[in-house]
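Input chain follows. Return structure tokens only.
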Amino acid sequence: SICKLFSSAQSLPASSVPYSIYFITFSGFCIYAAHWFIQKRKESDKQPHPLYVKGKLISQSVTCNPNNGEFETMDPSVHTVTDIRNLCYTYGEKPALYHAKQWLSYSTLIRGSEIFADIVERNAHTKAPVCVLGDFSSIKCSAILGLVSIGRSVVFVTQEQQPADILHILEEQHCEVILLKHSRLSQLEEALQCSYCSSLRVVLFTDDDYIDKGEGCSGYLAEESLTQTHNLEVLSLSHVIMSEYADFEPHAVLPTLPLRDAPAVIIYNSNNEPITITHRNIVAAASALALEYAVKDSDVILAEPISVASTLSLFMCAMLCGARFSFTNRIVEICG
């Protein structure tokens, strides 16, 4: 039988040989395409928590493997966000964060972050997470640095969240204080119309870079509703800073707290489930980025704020290395 099989294969017409080659080639291509599709599907299913650097996972615990070795930090003196903040203080007047068409120095960044943390401490009665609603901004980066440095966690709520989901997160995390842009006040007011939020007490809003006429009107109407109907204290962050913190001087060093495994940032996935990012996660992710891309203090790091975890990691990487940080939508202004 085997002899007949080989003899029949040898007696195939010459014209059928090219078709056989085409068939084998096509089959191989299909197998490769299927394998590529499966791999891409697996990669897309990975959650960016805290970060993937060229496919190398930084785990939810302590492991980073940019050089096939486990580590937590690139700097033995840095283990928490508080340590990063204290390191930032030493950079002084070096440019740190792009805001309002200019570079803010590290000293200005540290001052703003500590002021915001102090405002929250004065207005909050508990140690519940502070809610940050909406997209990333330079002010929110400064606020997150200040809050996390003193041991408070931040729950980040994206602007795509539905009103009922926003309310659910506020209740589940027992948030007393929320930070958002003035134009997002109407979004918060809409969420509170769904049900009463027993924990929320204070609303801190930042000024918008540009306010559409319609958005401005809705924002002021929402501000009035939040104050009168929902009995919330609504404060302008810029007004509080100018009126109460004109002579404020930040501390050179904040006390080191046992925060390595403490929650720093809480994000919610598509299933409305909380994911906790610890100080250890953030330091590991920032260190891995700094080592992977050999970040220097003369570099400018631009972030596309799609993923909360990756944007936060890039920001902390810049702070760790004394580099400059901004967002990709400012690239034309920065490059001139």
